Amino acid sequence: MAFEDFGFGDMSGVVVVIGSREVSLELVEVLSIREIDICTGKEIRIAGYDRMGLVGGGLVGSSFDFVGKWVAEDIPSIVSEAEFDAFRQSFRVPADIRFHVPEPHERACILREGCVALHVQSFNIGMRLLLDLFYRCVLRAYRLAPTQVAPNGWSQMAGSLYLWFRQSIGFEMPLYVFQTVYLLKKLPRKKDKEEEVGWYYFGPWGAHKPFVLDCPSSIKLWKEAWFWVFCNWQRVVSDAEQELDVPGVYGIANALLWCELKEEELDILREIYGQASEDRHFGKLICLPKYLIELDQMATKGMLLRH
């Protein structure tokens, strides 16, 4: 971004504001943000990032308590017991993890005791059990159950996790870095239906390209293909104070505070954004045997390094 085009010669003391947050010039540069709204004195205000309450990766002013009806209350499962054996083999599911077919009256948004609901299609685009701590951190931070995140959201998480893991040589992507490159957004409602209450996806800031390119945009019957999972989430290696449980209760997305990045984290983002586009294509990433092997290792052994 050429700030001098907006009348700024000396950039010392200039404040960049996204929504109501002050952010660094380095972050604006890395994200290639170009939507200038207001330039007055020593303030540059970035347009379009506080609409619909979307700021800093979360939904501002939202509440975890919900009085109303989830759309998922009208959607029973179409998964059958016969599918589980092939599913376990395809995705290398540990033997002690139990799957349960939902009863006809059960819904993903109404928790079965001791279980968590998962979508079948989330595995096809990168999810693995026992669920890497990165996924758990994102879900807990936003107060979302796994089935509240659309498949496109899971593909963005899986692709981001691997891109960062590869570029940082084995370090886990911090939550605040993920929220820097993505906004949590409500799933758009369809013309013939009311608002899709309870489902979300991750999208880029403004007109900026997604961190992970060409993720699947539409997967048929993803809402209906869900099942119950019962396992010991605590067996993943973690810091002593790390919360390991996977949230199973549906919630309205929680707001997150904006965090500034360290210089080394900005450097990693610059390097990733500077890669050839095809190296960030989700289809290419997920087809790499190395990608699938490392995802399995990260999920089952919890071996990611931490800063």
Structural class: alpha+beta
Radius of gyration: 20 Å
Name the helicity range. 25-40%
The count of strands amounts to: 11
- Spatial strand arrangement across the major sheet: 2-1-4-3
Number of domains: 2
Number of helices: 9
- Characterize the biggest β-sheet: 4 strands, mixed
**Form type:** globular
In percent terms, what proportion of residues is strand? Answer: 5-15%
Low-confidence stretches: 1-9, 34-65, 300-307
Overall average residue pLDDT = 73
In N-to-C order, the SSE pattern is: EEHEEEEHEEHHHHEEEHHH
Distance between the termini: 30 Å
Domain Transposase (putative) gypsy type: 119-185
Organism: Abeliophyllum distichum
Protein name: Plus3 domain-containing protein
Pfam families: Transposase_28 (PF04195)
Would you write up a description of this structure?
With 307 residues, this protein is of the alpha+beta class. It folds into two domains: 1-49, no CATH class; 52-301, no CATH class. It is built from nine helices and eleven strands. It has helices spanning 25-30, 84-91, 120-124, 133-142, 151-167, 175-181, 263-273, 282-287, 289-301; strands spanning 15-18, 21-23, 36-40, 43-46, 54-55, 58-59, 98-100, 116-119, 183-186, 200-203, 226-230. The strands form four sheets. Strands 2-1-4-3 form a four-stranded mixed beta sheet. Strands 7-11-8 form a three-stranded antiparallel beta sheet. It has a two-stranded antiparallel ribbon with strand order 5-6. β3 and β4 form a beta hairpin. The longest helix has 17 residues, at 151-167. The chain is globular and about 50 Å long. It starts with 14 loop residues before the first strand and ends in a 6-residue tail after the last helix. Mean pLDDT is 73; it is low at 1-9, 34-65 and 300-307.
